[in-house]
Design brief:
Arginase, Chain A; 10 helices; alpha/beta; about 40% helix; 8-stranded parallel beta sheet; single chain; binds zinc ion
Length: about 350
Amino acid sequence: MKKVGLVYDPIYLEHDTGSHPENFRRLEYILEALDDYGIREKMVPIAPQKASVEQVAMFHGPSYIEKVARFAHEGGGSLDPDTVVSRKSYEAALMAAGGVITAVDSVIGGAVDSAFALVRPPGHHAKADRSMGFCLFNNIVIGAMHAMKAHAIERILIVDWDVHHGNGTAEAFYDNPSVLYFSTHQQGIFPNTGWASETGSGAGEGYNINVPLNRWTGDSGLYIAFTQILEPVARQFKPQLVLVSAGFDAHYADPLAGLEMTIRGYARIAEIVKRIADLESGGRIVAALEGGYNLGVIGHAVSAVVNVFGEYDVEVTEPGGTEPRFEKPVMRIPIDEAVKIQKRYWKL
Ligand SMILES: [Zn+2]
């Protein structure tokens, strides 16, 4: 068994978004599932520290940080068409970024082998100077920058398996060869970025990998992308730390997208990430929650991933519902296209 940290703080529930799909009940359902499977008791609880304004400012502009703080303290509302803010959202967002920072410290310090940061608001769409897609501060970007600054980590792999492209994260490191960003996402949905031809710029050329997938691709497509692109690239890149933007909205029962993964599919891609970390980064993985909006599903999905990271051998089940449609031959086309592009930079 491995030690997996669970980063959580009740303030994450106080980012009050009302009836928005990204609401506090998501975390309650996840914690309940972790309890039901007996997984939470095997994990190591980690109390997060709030990120300081200076830490958030490693990525975000000071005037944007101030804008979020002021908007929340004045009572909140809609900061952009998708992103709702309440009075406690600024504190929750500082604690979400701080949650990833604390997880990075715990993993690098050796207190745990890996960690899952059960945070909200999510982060991967947040840009340096604006909120986007339910995200205020980019938790994963801030965690990565902290790892480089405070721990002198030189090579970080970010795996983003949320169904949406993590445009904020991609942008943050687009010209930076120290951070390899790998994203699988459904093509043609929000935020409409993440084309396979977006490969990074300047010194970062080749360090931004997008595998946009067709609707209904299913588990097998993700598995092919992870084994035929991510794994060989990661073995060449040799990350010292692996970060995961762990969204679960690619599940077939998710209301916001249609990639049609199953719980078993999440376990399989988590196994590949774990294998990469075991071989290259001393097993060090920090995952942070991003999307995932079916309350009956996300707890099982997080449990499946933590079960893999911890080598717990718990049987995590599919919550049921309509069976997904499995891979059709056409689903390989975008993956083959991404392979062709990545062959310019990596041995595949
Ligand atoms: Zn998403």
